[in-house]
Amino acid sequence: MGTIRRVVLIDGCSGVQYGRDNEQYSVYRVTLPPVALESTEALARHLLSDDRQWSRDVFDHNGQASFAGLAGAGSAFGGVAEAVAGDTLVIVRNSRGVQVGDGNTQHNKFQIRVASVAIKAVQVSPAAASRAAVDRLCQHPSQATAGMVARQIADAAREHLVLDLTAQVTREVGNPVIPGQPAEISGRTGVQAGGSARAHVRVVVEVTTVNVDRLTAVLLRQARRDLAAKEGTAETPAATFTTPGQETDSASSASADRPAAKVARIDRTTRPPSTGAGPALGGISPFG
């Protein structure tokens, strides 16, 4: 062993490379539970009116990707290890997937979960809901046609949600390469240090299901109201039974819409994929 000129502590981290001329590939996979697609009667009235659609889509959502506990969580290695990279002694503590040395390649896979998500359609463009489907719903309101329009809007909502969460995670990950010669790396995920590092980051967002039941009901109710108004008839009321001398009151109820959620900005970042293999400190893998 040569002369040790510096000491570096890596503590509570996951998926870290230390050394020169290293290459790192990190995939952040975001998995969402079933997403509820919501809307308001105001959107339905505008969508089915003569004004029809807006020039662009606007969707609000409350999806927040959490990195809490990702670094060092569930570590296969909870003790302390030491390794040497050139003239640097690297001490690793309470971490997993730490690779020390020069000319190595590391592959990381990180799983990020998002709690319950609701997305609300605020504006809908012609690209989201086809004019033919909307015309059919206006002329012949039916559950099937309302569901078709709702599913078209859901496809646009899914795309916006994927773009927003991809941008959100990309911003959170930031630049994986730590410049200079840090004395300590603490609580980090998927980073490199030591010089001449090359990092590749990919974010994958998976939206499995978008529930359109609520939007379908809002669209169908509005289409029936509009058609009844055009034909000069009232909507068919629910059946009631009275006896002479009695008065009845009828009222309709609707579920309260959830408050509009925070809108995430869209910002797509693309990183080049590649392959490779390399050793890890003490046989520790990022997900060992």
Description:
The structure is a single chain. The chain is of the alpha/beta class. The chain has one domain. Helix content is 23%, strand content 28%. It has 4 helices and 14 strands. Strands 6-7-1-11 form a 4-stranded mixed beta sheet, with no helix packed on it. A 4-stranded mixed beta sheet has the order 5-10-4-14. The chain has a 3-stranded parallel beta sheet with strand order 8-2-12, with no helix packed on it. A hairpin with a 2-residue loop joins strand 6 and strand 7. Helix 2 packs antiparallel against helix 3 and helix 3 packs across helix 4. It is rod-shaped and about 95 Å long. The protein starts with 5 loop residues before the first strand and ends in a 58-residue tail after the last helix. The C terminus is likely disordered.
Write the topology of this structure.
Blueprint: E1 6-11, E2 14-18, E3 23-32, E4 35-38, H1 41-47, E5 58-61, E6 80-85, E7 88-93, E8 96-100, E9 105-113, E10 118-123, H2 131-139, H3 143-173, E11 184-186, E12 189-193, E13 198-207, E14 210-211, H4 213-230
Parallel strand pairs: 1-7, 1-11, 2-8, 2-12, 3-9, 3-13, 4-10, 4-14
Antiparallel strand pairs: 5-10, 6-7
Helix pairs in contact: 2-3, 3-4
